[in-house]
Amino acid sequence: MTGSTILVIDDDTIVRESIVAYLKGIGFKTHEAGNGQQGLHIFRECQPDLILCDLRMPVMDGLTMLSQVRSEASDIPFIVVSGAGVMTDVVEALHLGASDFLVKPIVDLEVLEYAIHRALEKAQLLMENKRYRASLEEAINSLKSSLTLLQEDQKAGRQVQMNMLPRHPLEYKDFKVDHNIIPSLYLSGDFVDYFTLSDHSFAFYLADVSGHGASSAFVTVLLKHMSISLLQDYHNNNRNGGKIRVKPSHVLSYINQSLLKTGLGKHVTVFGGIVNTRDQTLTYSFGGHFPLPVIAEEGKKVRFLEGKGLPVGLFEDAVYEDVIIDLPRQFSLTILSDGILEVLPQKSLKEKEAYLLSVIGEGADTIATLTERLGLNDIQEAPDDIAMLILARY
């Protein structure tokens, strides 16, 4: 703290000058006054870093001086100097906010130096704490404002997502595709889509983006954009005499390469399929999707649909396969994101899978009945996004 400015106030000229000389000798800057009134004037003019003041002085004593200083500057260090016989004044000075006190005569001026350094360090610490609190309050207020804006942005983003989702179930001849999404936050990393391809086929998919919130929601926008682009290319080619046959495996490969090129560090688990009503077949492909889709056929045991494949957006050399199955006259195919496993009450994965099979096997073959039977209507805050899509033929 050497180099700080100290105001020395004492009516005893010899004592005052000896203290000033000592302080200058160890590197302090000084001002001096013979009484409290002079000292107050110098204090207001020069704004010293510390005040060293005698208590008993004419014109204005040290207690009055201290009281006035504290009313104008509550943080400046103020050391009082008192004779041994006036300790009641010292107590009063401490009550008024004195930083420390020394007893006259000050025989060892190193004691004075120590007291000054200690008072200056304490004052600096208090100032830093004050600045820290002010900075913290500013940060908190800024965070609150940012949080409000973020919530507004997320609400707007959620609306954008809702507008990207199919607005109505797809009813195509005697088939129906419907969905429901329960986000863990305003924005969801789960996404579904379904649309017609031709007069005898339609496509659908359920995607689960890694992570949560805005970054994951952004990838769902990319998925929507990719599916629209592929659909436009398909229609344009066919109008120009081409005969492109859309395969789910090709779509997953395209999305895989596109996501890797973005460098977002996000991957997606996907299950996608194409229903051909002329051939009465379903062609599907897995992109790391879990849990496995559940197929329920009339008069048959409910089972998981077989298939495998790597997540999309992780591996350059990922290969995806198409599986083709014949469609029965009556069935339901239920696809769920892995968020459903977080809310089921069973402890083990095997028990959760068995429970899903039993619920679907007992007739939960619509979005409304499945949502109700799984208790999803009562969820206040989902630990993970939950998406469900049901393809059915009644």
What does this structure look like?
By secondary structure, the chain is α+β, with helices and mostly antiparallel strands. The protein has two domains: 5-131, Response regulator (Rossmann fold, 3-Layer(aba) Sandwich), CATH 3.40.50; 165-393, PPM-type phosphatase domain (Phosphatase 2c, domain 1, 4-Layer Sandwich), CATH 3.60.40. It has ten helices and 16 strands. It has helices spanning 13-25, 36-46, 62-72, 87-96, 109-164, 213-239, 248-262, 340-343, 349-361, 367-373, and strands spanning 5-9, 29-33, 50-54, 78-83, 100-104, 170-172, 175-182, 190-198, 201-209, 268-276, 281-287, 294-297, 303-304, 323-326, 331-336, 386-393. Helix 3 (62-72) packs parallel to helix 4 (87-96) and helix 5 (109-164) runs parallel beside helix 6. The longest helix has 56 residues, at 109-164. The termini are far apart.
